[in-house]
Design brief:
single chain, five-stranded parallel β-sheet, 18 strands, eight-stranded antiparallel β-sheet, 6 helices, alpha+beta
Length: 325
């Protein structure tokens, strides 16, 4: 984060509300562990950084990734030099985060951070200078591409336009004012052109938290038009996307193409980590406005595809999860 003496730091954490006590036990346990971990970090950080002002703020979340935090949180995010958002529900794709960045804060968004990620061989321990070099290279390839196609043996086959869309690089190096990204980091990304996604995305069992059987998302004219399979996870997204309602069409938008570049990322069921696994591809739905797209939404969800083959302008970039170029 490039923390300098005298800078102020905000540790931001969502904590379970009443309705969150009804989520599956394992998810609730992770939620509570994460909230307590942030409090513990707040307790010991001042001993390591005595020349900095540390503040700690909690709030009740809206219960989904991409939903805006309370206004009081958004206001506080404009007041600090460095923000560590260690949350369960992501605020990466929110106006609150963007306003914080516009105010000059360096923001690390860490939705789903787990203690294991901080261990010696966990994804946080990677050499981010190496990750940065490869990630920026892939972002440059995306910059120069007009179309993309993703295929995988499980049944994924989806295409979309990247015309005039800039590639982004989540490098893990957040040392300049206004920079933001995930930690752990490691992905090149882009917002596909709205209305152009066509095809099928298949998320294999085990590649989303609680997903025990494959989930199939069909894209038509840029939007998810159908979800089949997926068991309880599939039911959750069918309810969230409400295909019988045009008012929630923004949640169905094909919002992101991402390529993982972190060689120490491994956990397939934690999206924060799995989308960084080197050689994976992920497709996001919902909000793209914070990635260079035009769709604003109260949702952003990413689905990771292992061993994918990626074409940019018909040139193979990844083949079954291995870099070709």
């Amino acid at each position: 984060m490039g923390l300098k003496p005298g800078e102020s730091v905000l540790l931001l954490s969502d904590v379970p509300g009443i309705e969150d006590w009804m989520i599956p036990h394992r998810r609730l346990a992770n939620f509570l562990t994460r909230s307590l971990m942030v409090r513990q970090i707040f307790d010991f950080y001042p001993d390591y950084f005595p020349k900095n002002n540390f503040h700690y703020m909690t709030y009740f979340p809206a219960g989904q990734h991409g939903a805006e935090p309370p206004e009081g949180v958004a206001g506080k995010m404009r007041e600090y030099d460095v923000i560590l958002a260690i949350t369960t529900y992501s605020i990466s794709h929110t106006n609150a985060r963007e306003q914080g960045s516009s105010s000059g804060a360096r923001i690390a968004s860490m939705p789903g951070l787990q203690p294991e990620m901080l261990q010696e061989k966990g994804p946080m321990a990677v050499d981010y200078n190496i990750v940065s070099k490869e990630t920026r290279y892939l972002a440059e390839l995306i910059d120069n591409a007009s179309t993309a196609r993703v295929e995988a043996a499980a049944g994924t086959d989806i295409t979309f336009s990247l015309e005039n869309r800039a590639g982004g690089a989540d490098t893990g190096l957040l040392t300049e004012n206004g920079q933001w990204g995930n930690l752990p980091a490691g992905e090149a990304f882009v917002a596909p052109v709205e209305g152009t996604a066509e095809g099928v995305l298949v998320v294999p069992g085990g590649w989303y938290e609680g997903l025990k059987e494959a989930m199939r998302l069909k894209f038509t004219n840029g939007y998810v038009s159908e979800i089949s399979g997926g068991g309880g996870v599939g039911d959750y997204f069918r309810e969230l996307l409400r295909f019988d309602s045009n008012t929630l069409r923004h949640r169905q938008n094909c919002a992101e193409l991402g390529i993982g570049t972190n060689p120490l990322a491994r956990d397939p069921q934690n999206t924060l980590e799995s989308e960084k696994i080197k050689g994976t591809v992920h497709i996001g739905i919902g909000d793209s406005s914070h990635l260079g797209g035009k769709t604003e939404s109260d949702l952003h969800e990413d689905f990771v595809i292992p061993e994918a083959t990626l074409y940019l302008d018909k040139e193979v970039i990844l083949k079954e999860g291995k870099m070709i170029i």
